[in-house]
Amino acid sequence: MLDVHDHRSLGQRLDLFHLQEEAPGMVFWHPRGYLLYQLIEERVRRRMRREGYLEVRTPQLLSQPIWEKSGHWDNFRQNMFELSEEGARHHALKPVNCPGHIQLVQRMGPSYRDLPLRLGEFGLVHRSEPSGSLHGLFRLRQFTQDDGHIFCAEEQLSEEILRFCRSLHAFYVDFGFEHIEVAFSSRPAQRAGSDEVWDLAESLLLEAASRSGLHCRMQPGEGAFYGPKLEFVLKDRLGRDWQCGTIQLDLVLPERFDLSYVDASGQKRRPMMLHRAMLGSLERFIGILLEHHEGALPAWLAPEQVVVAPIGEEPVDFAERFAAKLREADCRVSVDARAESLSRKIVDAHQAGVPWLVVVGRREVEKNAVRLRRRDGGQEDLSLDDAVARLVAECRPAAAS
Q1: What does the alpha-carbon distance between residue 398 and residue 301 come to, in Å, rounded to a whole number?
Q2: Mind listing the pLDDT tens digit for each residue in 210-229?
Q3: Where do the Aminoacyl-transfer RNA synthetases class-II family profile domain residues begin and end (predicted)?
Q4: What is the pLDDT of residues 63-78, one digit of tens each?
Q5: Between the chain's N and C termini, which has fewer beta carbons within 10 Å?
Q6: Which CATH code is given to the segment(s) 306-395?
Q7: At what angle do helices 154-166 and 195-211 cross, to 10 degrees?
Q8: 7-292 — its CATH code?
Q9: 236 touches 291 (CB < 8 A)
């Protein structure tokens, strides 16, 4: 029996998603859950646009030579889903998006005027996780990364890392996470690239972190096989730590794929590559959110923000007109016109995680007013126009951070 605050229980109660044996480690998103997914995705997408990322889409299936060149065939193959065709030509479903982005940059053939070049993708990836390690949305075989890669000159590197780190705290606060820590993960035992390359990468990333004012907890040996990384760790209301955002400095893949750009003097130079994500996995972040808020998501994130509950048949038309005004202002609203008691409608709205219930009875119709009931039980009577203004303000997305 799952705990009522487990995200899998909350997903069932809020009608967001389900998992089943026929698709182990993969999610069936229900309409309400997919709406939540899209709200988070759009939040990230708005920030990507503001920061100059070009959104792309790359193939799910790539052949063995690309994975050999990237180093994943030697260092990550046990976590990849492989396929083969006649002639023993091997392919693999992508576990990461970076080799695909590198293919795009090679085709672009950038000059120094194009740098920094920032590519972003909501990349669906697959990883062959052992069945015993699968755990709801926290550990999946199929998930979406809010992935981004920055290709830049060495003199641009520190500023790019600073740009990423500068406003990340405010981004997490919008989702209700106030306490963020940063960890520095250095070279692992199994890695690609020489010690000299790793020495340079670690020193550059630590220097940029210091310039950003970050105080990092050291995590020896926890870096990616291609480079060191900064990891942003969120603490939830239960005091648990969740590693979400990351920025990684990679000097290995540009070398292995022979990436280059043309500098001001016409000479070819090697770009530096940054891998960055704010959430890591959208699915996992939703699981963290659900448990952190115990299912009571902030109003701007709630799939259903307002339920209008007419009491009796007479107020139904009034309730529909009120709901229409809210929809015109982009509020997510429904009308519960069932022949149920007010207490039943309150319980059902609470169970569905709805932040606001609007009660409309005969008295409210006569006064051209409504009663607003918050999720915590507080309530007040407001005129129709004042109620619309209040709910629109409460349900509006937080200012983009």
Answers
A1: 10
A2: 888 888 899 999 888 888 99
A3: 6-298
A4: 999 999 998 998 888 9
A5: N
A6: 3.40.50.800
A7: 50
A8: 3.30.930.10
A9: yes
What pairs with residue 276 in β-bridges? 148, 247
Q: 233 with 221: CB under 8 angstroms?
A: no
Its sign, for the CA torsion 383, 385, 386, 390, is: positive
- What pLDDT does 88 receive? 66
Nearest of 225, 271, 270, 269 to residue 248 by alpha carbon? 225
**Measured between alpha carbons, how far is 6 from 11 in angstroms, rounded to an integer?**
9
What is the amino acid identity at position 281? S
Lookup result for tokens 């106030």:
178
Instruction: Tokens 């990230």: give the residue.
Output: 44
Cα–Cα distances in Å, from 314 out to 280, 308, 309, 387? Answer: 50, 14, 12, 20
**Cα–Cα distance between 201 and 153 in angstroms, integer?**
13
Q: Where in the chain is the domain with CATH 3.30.930.10?
A: 7-292
Q: Which two tokens stand for residue 340?
A: 């149920």
Q: Quote the CA–CA distance of 19 and 25 in Å, as a whole number.
A: 7
Pick from 193, 286, 175, 277: nearest CA to 230: 277
pLDDT of 87 reads 63
Long-range contacts of 366-370, Cβ-Cβ distance < 8 Å, separation of 24 or more: 370/308, 370/322
Cα–chain-centroid distance for residue 192? 28
Q: What six digits make up the tokens of 73?
A: 């065939």
Residues of the chain with CATH 3.40.50.800: 306-395
Angle of CA points 3, 9, 15, to nearest 5°: 160
**Phi and psi at residue 163, to the nearest 5°:** -60, -40
3-state helix vs strand vs coil in the chain, percent to 5: 35, 25, 35
- Segments of the chain with pLDDT less than 70: 1, 86-88, 399-401
Residues annotated as catalytic are: 98, 127, 145, 147, 149, 229, 275
Whole-prediction pTM value? Answer: 0.93
